[in-house]
């Protein structure tokens, strides 16, 4: 039994995948934190861009004088 646990602790199969999963988890938590913190500011920025497009006159061609 002691040998089994020693081999289990030394085994490295799947270690890389577990590290990638941890990194992905940390990134996901970071993205959620940023969206919670800056969510309203991001929405306002997108709405400002949409408003600028709505203000642009259509049907006019500035290249023909």
From TrEMBL:
Q: Where are the transmembrane segments?
A: 20-43
Which UniProt keywords are present, listed alphabetically?
A: Membrane, Transmembrane, Transmembrane helix
Superkingdom of source: Bacteria
Q: Can you name this protein?
A: Flp family type IVb pilin
What species does this protein belong to?
A: Halalkalibacillus sediminis
């Amino acid at each position: 039994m002691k040998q089994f646990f020693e081999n289990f602790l030394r085994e490295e199969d799947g270690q890389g995948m577990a590290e990638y999963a941890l990194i992905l988890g940390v990134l996901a938590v970071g993205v959620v934190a940023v969206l919670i913190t800056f969510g309203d500011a991001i929405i306002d920025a997108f709405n400002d861009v949409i408003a600028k497009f709505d203000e642009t006159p259509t049907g006019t061609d500035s290249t023909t004088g």
